[in-house]
Amino acid sequence: MPTRMIRPSPSLANVRYEIRGRLARRAHEMERLGYDIVSLNIGNPGAFGFRTPETMRLAMIENLRSAEGYCHQKGIFPAREAVVMQQQERGVRGVTADDVFIGNGVSELIDLTLRALLAQDEEVLVPSPDYPLWTAAVNLNRGRAVHYPCPPERGFIPNPDEIESLITKRTRAIVVINPNNPTGAVYPRHVLEGIAHIAEKYHLVVLADEIYDQMTYDGAEFIPMATLVQHTLCGTLSGLSKVYRACGYRVGWAVFSGDVEHSREYLSALELLSSLRLCSNVPGQWAVQTALGGYQSIRELVSPGGRLYESRKAIVDAVGRSQFLYLTPPMGALYAFVGVQAESLPGFDDQQFALDLLEHKHVLVAPGSSFNVPYRNHFRVTNLPEPQLIADVFARMEELLHDYAVGETPVTRPNPALRVVETAAKR
What is the bridge-based pairing of β-strands 233-239 and 144-149? Predict the structure, then answer.
């Protein structure tokens, strides 16, 4: 009987998520072969020894008896009320628990908010570079991602006038990622005010990805987008994964503010989608109230002497010593978006560099082109490792870049598994 190829849905044709793509699969394969791989491609605190605050673990354990059944599709009331209290403390008015949706991490909520919003070929303005799930989710939900530039020469800060020039009759929303992943940029107030004004002028939904809201360095000021948006709908997305080092709990939230009254039909659609997946992870939700209302240990980690601060400093110092690299120092989040000097290494390709670095130096990074940028001379690393390990990793990078510069390019043998994946992706 003849066999028939099972092909993926055409809806995946423009969907990319290379942070966990072919390079990550190759890294796992090498680990199975016995190699020690330093994985800097993902902001996963637990992989580098960070622990969720004990009070959150205890809150979850103490409420396990109440977490065995389904909860309300929007989430348990104590968790939603804690999000409301946080918003009120930040100066956001008029929010109630009915305006909060708890999800299985921000990732699920990105998908749900866009699915409830978009019709075929409607457009969403997304930053470039972006966290690639935003672009992927727009494409998966029948929309079209239109990227507004946040170029290296401006410190990865967007220009509101450029954003406005991209708006068409099909534009429905603006995505703001602040503090930014992958660049670590923290947007100044006047830029955020400009984006808010544009959104209100054209009646666009603002989707503010603020998962790194308390991770800022050297006095950088985080300004919640919801405090600036009044006359259109603003959805703020955040969660426990990063600030509270609880990625595995899979707890995020979307809280809606601004012109909620004229958005009830949309929010009802979002509740319908939330109902279809019954509810999000209930045990983890019991940690939300304790997390938001308790001691904020993240402040120590991002202050001088704190581990995240010192690891970030180690990256800045290592780049400063390099013959080939440059960097806009990240002012927030967990990452650095490192550039390679084109004049020193003409023809540099971020994908090939990442593969060579993995195969020959056993370090996994995310190529910059994974983040929907038009250039190929950047890569992203996380600042989660200890400073000593970061210094060692950048020494390995410098060795590889030096080999490039003197023409001693290492030979990376093609991997059959990668060829299979690449061939399937081209179909």
Answer: unpaired
Q: Alpha-carbon distance 105 to 44, whole Å?
A: 13
CA distance 369 to 378: 7
Homologous superfamily assigned to 11-40+303-426: Aspartate Aminotransferase, domain 1 (3.90.1150.10)
| Alpha carbons 383 and 56: distance in angstroms, whole number | 24
Please report, as a single letter, which amino acid is at residue 264. Answer: R
The pTM of this model reads: 0.92
Q: What is the structure's pLDDT at 59?
A: 96
Tell me which CATH code domain 54-293 carries: 3.40.640.10
The residue type of 294 is G
366 vs 44: CA distance, rounded Å: 14
CA 289 to each of CA 77, 244, 246, 286, 301: distance values in angstroms, whole numbers, following the listed order: 10, 12, 14, 7, 21
The model's pLDDT over 192-211, given as tens digits with 9 standing for 90+, comes to 999 999 999 999 999 999 99
